[in-house]
């Protein structure tokens, strides 16, 4: 299958640059069977979940992973995106521009904090950085890692805006954005109505923004990301499925975790590990019945996943409708519920 099958034209003014108040976004409801599209507000999601169903959230917390620095030898500005902590002072990271961060180069964060480039992964461009001089926590020196299509510097509004209200486990460098729509009020009403809300953890890495560079999408390789499914979550999801309820996955990250652990019989087990599952059409979903997601980048692995869940034709038709109706796209954009 070709990458060009998942491309579309998006007016730049529809790329959301700022977060809305939690719960204030629009909601497009797409029905796979009838192929009908409904235009709603996000609080209307309450109308689609019954007491037999369950909602699965990704509780990963975005860390302030964006750190500014300068190269010791030249004073040239560099930007570090922390990806994954390897030990107390060793981090896997991206450095921009990459040509300014060669092995043994020293980057200063301030007068006392610095790091040395220990190693470079030539395939991904990721560096291993060894930090020194940290007073407290390295993350105290960072700021919100906004995605590249948000064309501005991080602001105070992003500290809460780019974080779900239920985030608890530090580790993501990008938000699981489908969850950004939930306010405490909506989540409380959902708990009261259906009573079954469970969580998984998947720490979102920079691969979520990495473009598919191969024309044949089957040749693209996903970067692995750490995940956890607890025994309680697996038990609840299995019980819901057994009793004829529906599993609502909040986001593509949640979907990938559930499908990574699913057995051939469509059951979950407790598990901790890494997943590099790449979901694209055709794909047989074993756990997820309904999917809440945002509107994604053209040609991205995310639009490929939602196309596998519905169909490429239906998703692109829905996106054209969203553009016509002036929905906002990407991380701070509006939501889509696929039934």
Strand order of the largest sheet: 2-1-17-16-14-3-12-13-15
Helix proportion range: 10-25%
Q: Tell me the CATH superfamily of the largest domain.
A: QueA-like
What is the mean pLDDT? 96
The shape is: globular
**Tally of DSSP helical segments:** 6
Distance between the termini: 25 Å
Classify the secondary structure makeup into a structural class. Answer: alpha/beta
Could you explain the architecture of this structure?
Helix 5 (301-309) packs across helix 6 (312-324). The longest helix has 13 residues, at 312-324. The mean pLDDT is 96. The chain has helices at residues 156-161, 184-193, 231-242, 252-261, 301-309, 312-324; strands at residues 26-30, 37-41, 54-58, 60-62, 66-71, 77-85, 90-96, 106-108, 114-120, 127-132, 169-172, 197-202, 225-229, 247-250, 271-275, 290-294, 335-338. The chain is built from six helices and 17 strands. The chain is globular.
Task: Output the keywords.
26% strand, Thrombin, subunit H, single chain, 17 strands, globular, 6-stranded antiparallel barrel, QueA-like, 339 residues, alpha/beta
């Amino acid at each position: 299958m070709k990458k060009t099958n998942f491309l579309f034209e998006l007016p730049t003014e529809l790329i959301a640059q700022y977060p809305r108040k939690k719960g204030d976004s629009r909601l497009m409801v797409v029905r796979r069977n009838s192929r009908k599209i409904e235009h709603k507000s996000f609080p209307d999601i309450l109308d689609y979940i019954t007491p037999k169903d369950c909602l699965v959230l990704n509780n990963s917390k975005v860390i302030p992973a964006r750190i500014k620095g300068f190269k010791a030898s030249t004073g040239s500005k560099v930007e570090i995106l922390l990806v994954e902590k390897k030990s107390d002072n060793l981090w896997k990271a991206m450095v921009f521009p990459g040509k300014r961060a060669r092995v043994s180069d020293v980057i200063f964060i301030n007068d006392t904090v610095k790091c040395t480039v220990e190693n470079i992964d030539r395939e991904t461009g990721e560096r291993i950085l060894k930090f020194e001089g940290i007073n407290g926590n390295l993350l105290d020196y960072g700021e919100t890692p906004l995605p590249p299509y948000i064309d501005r510097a991080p602001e105070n509004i992003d500290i809460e805006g780019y974080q779900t209200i239920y985030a608890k486990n530090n580790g993501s460098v990008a938000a699981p954005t489908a969850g950004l729509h939930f306010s405490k009020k909506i989540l409380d009403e959902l708990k009261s109505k259906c009573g079954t809300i469970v969580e998984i953890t998947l720490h979102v890495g920079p691969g979520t923004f990495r473009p598919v560079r191969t024309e044949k999408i089957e040749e693209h390789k996903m970067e692995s990301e750490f995940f956890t499914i607890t025994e309680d979550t697996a038990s609840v999801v299995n019980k819901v499925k057994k009793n004829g309820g529906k599993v609502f996955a909040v986001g593509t990250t949640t979907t990938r975790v559930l499908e990574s652990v699913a057995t051939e019989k469509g059951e979950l087990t407790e598990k901790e590990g890494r997943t590099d599952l790449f979901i694209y059409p055709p794909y047989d979903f074993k756990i997820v019945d309904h999917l809440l997601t945002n509107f994604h980048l053209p040609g991205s692995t995310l639009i490929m996943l939602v196309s596998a869940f519905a169909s490429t034709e239906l998703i692109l038709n829905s996106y054209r409708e969203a553009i016509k109706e002036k929905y906002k796209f990407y991380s701070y954009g509006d939501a889509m519920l696929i039934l």
